[in-house]
Write a structure and sequence with these properties.
246 residues, alpha/beta, Rossmann fold, 7-stranded parallel beta sheet, 7 helices
Length: 246
């Protein structure tokens, strides 16, 4: 990964931050992207302080022109784009489908699904100029099963898997691999809204007996981005403590 350029969206915290730090430790040029400029700059500064190479670019992933600008910034700053990790996402509104607000539905679809289309649209164009590249899209365990109260989130994450598979079919022969990762429930700020009892209940859904850590997901993302996974494309990899095996 040394001197390769990677874009990571939602890199200010959680899985995105852990992934940015891992790539930087392996010598990559990391473009830290997030809508939260304060936290995003903090992530960038900590990477640089540790001897890594990183720059911050504020991005609202729901706006295609900003995703296009993010890719242009990466290419202008480091010469080309080698890896993209489309990680930005939200938990979204928690309500039964009939009670979910129209606004809540559009928001979660916009951030968790539309943004990946916008990202890949411009990431792929940049990678085609290199003749190679790897894209990792962050889906979820809810990219293959449902979850009561999370219709919008589950629909978006299922969509991520379909979008990933289709892009892989279209561009793998041109040197661009596209894969998806499906984390289980991970200890990130997305779970901050849950009380202790709800977290306990979530733990019981994972046969391994605990929630996951961001660093564990980052390791899988890194492998899928690296040449060690050169024959892997169009795949969906859960990292879920056995959740989907139940």
């Amino acid at each position: 990964m040394k001197n390769k350029t990677v874009i990571i969206t939602g890199a200010a915290s959680g899985i995105g931050k852990a992934t940015a730090e891992l790539f930087a430790r392996q010598g990559a040029n990391v473009v830290v992207s997030d809508i939260d400029a304060t936290a995003g700059k903090s992530t960038t500064e900590s990477i640089v302080a540790a001897g890594g190479k990183a720059t911050f670019f504020k991005t609202d992933v729901t706006k295609p022109e900003e995703m296009e600008a993010l890719v242009a910034f990466a290419v202008k700053t480091y010469g080309q784009l080698d890896v993209a990790v489309n990680n930005a996402g939200i938990g979204g509104e928690l309500n039964p489908l009939a009670d979910m607000s129209i606004e809540g539905w559009h928001k979660v679809i916009s951030i968790n699904l539309n943004s990946l289309f916008y990202g890949m649209k411009y990431q792929i164009k940049a990678m085609l100029k290199n003749g190679s590249g790897s894209i990792v899209n962050i889906s979820s365990i809810l990219g293959s099963v449902g979850f009561a109260g999370s219709s919008g989130y589950a629909a978006a994450k299922h969509g991520v898997v379909g979008l990933t598979q289709t892009a892989a079919l279209e561009y793998s022969a041109q040197g661009i691999r596209v894969n998806a990762v499906g984390p289980g429930f991970i200890e990130t700020p997305l779970l901050n809204a849950l009380d202790a009892e709800m977290k306990k209940q979530l733990v019981t859904l994972h046969p391994i007996g605990r929630l996951g850590q961001s660093e564990e997901v980052a390791e899988l993302i890194y492998w899928l981005s690296s040449d060690k996974s050169s024959f892997v494309t169009g795949s969906y990899y859960p990292v879920d403590g056995g959740y989907l095996a139940r």
